[in-house]
Amino acid sequence: MARLPILNASAGADLDLPDAVPLAGRSGIGRPGWLNDRQGRKLRYLRFSVTDRCDLKCQYCMPAEGIPASPREDVLTFEEVVRICRIFKELGVTTVRLTGGEPLVRRNVDGLIRRIRDLGIEDIAMTTNATALRPLARRLVDAGLKRINVSLDSIDPETFRSMTRGGDVARVIDGIDAIRDAGIGVVKTNSVVVRGKNHTHLPQIVDWAWDRNIVPRFIELMPLGEGAKLGTGAVVPVQEMKALLGDRIVTDADPEHRSDRGPAGYVPAARGGGHKVGFIGAVTENFCERCNRIRITAKGDIRACLASPKGLSLRDLIRSGNDDEAILAQIRESLFGKWSGHHFNVSGVDDHEHVNMSALGG
Ligand code: SAM
Ligand code: SF4
């Protein structure tokens, strides 16, 4: 297996750090306050996979035969998840997004949200396939869920069924209706665009979403795990997606990026009305310089980059009796070396093909 190139270690003098926070030094390690990596990126966004189980098997994410779920004792308990969130809050994290696998298959996920909110973290979000959303919607919002991203690769029942290997799009749409009725602040959809599967469905998804004040987002297929097996021919570049939307959007607008809202660039609707479409050019547009994310797998491994196949085990640190201060120091050290980029397009580097998206959480 090819290895990754050595990190770009240029850092230091031009770090763009907030003035209000006292710094003990420039190393980024062992000082109180904010968490930054050696590129000077402020890491404020924690993406937590709470399970590696899922009730669907999307073609770009899970193999047809599924992936054996981790034994329950290997997966972080909610107690451990909350403790980790508390430590990251100390380090300046302001947003926690729960993902999976499918986060709604984990029992009492609303109770977890409530406990995270009680830590003082107000921006709590979730990425879900929404198949189990309807009965949980009210409880999630009451517990403190502010924003939700729902995977919706097509609103055509047959295409959806085929891409998810059996999913029922009517259930997903019903779940979206339920969480909107429950008063959630923001709903977005995520569609992974796969040539020959759903790439002609983009206009239909946009019209459907805008009618409901939902922000549709389109994601380039990433060469991770099952996604890599679909081949580069299946990738539809963002520029082509925009062209497929024709006069619905202002195609020559500079995409709006919000550093606290992830990698998507948003383009306004041509007809106005405040509508927009998000594009995530994971392959053709390098968003890494804006990346402020930290990922934690269901088993408690930190992944500084979604293309990184390994990382520090917080679970092992916790279960071997370390106190919060010791864990905090290890987190700083491991994230300071966050990769400068994902290397998808570096010839001969294929570590990312061994990343399992359903364990990592997207
Ligand atoms: N099960 C939930 C869902 O589907 O929304 C959360 C986990 S899923 C792994 C998170 C996100 O990763 C989804 O939006 C999914 O579409 C995206 N994803 C999975 N595999 C991908 C791939 N190969 N390329 C691009 N996005 C991918
Ligand atoms: Fe499950 Fe989400 Fe992966 Fe689809 S993308 S198989 S819903 S984890």
In words, what does this structure look like?
The protein is an alpha/beta fold and 362 residues long. The protein has a single domain (9-360), classed as Alpha-Beta Barrel (TIM Barrel), CATH 3.20.20. It is built from 11 helices and 11 strands. It has helices at 78-90, 109-118, 137-143, 157-164, 169-181, 202-211, 226-229, 238-245, 314-319, 324-336, 357-360, and strands spanning 45-49, 95-99, 123-128, 147-151, 186-193, 215-220, 256-257, 265-268, 276-280, 293-296, 302-303. It has an 11-stranded mixed beta sheet with strand order 7-8-9-6-5-4-3-2-1-10-11, covered by helices on one side. A hairpin with a 5-residue loop joins strand 10 and strand 11. Helix 2 packs parallel to helix 3 (137-143) and helix 3 (137-143) crosses helix 5. The longest helix has 13 residues, at 78-90. It is globular and about 55 Å long. The chain binds S-adenosylmethionine and iron/sulfur cluster. The site of iron/sulfur cluster has 13 residues, from helix 11.
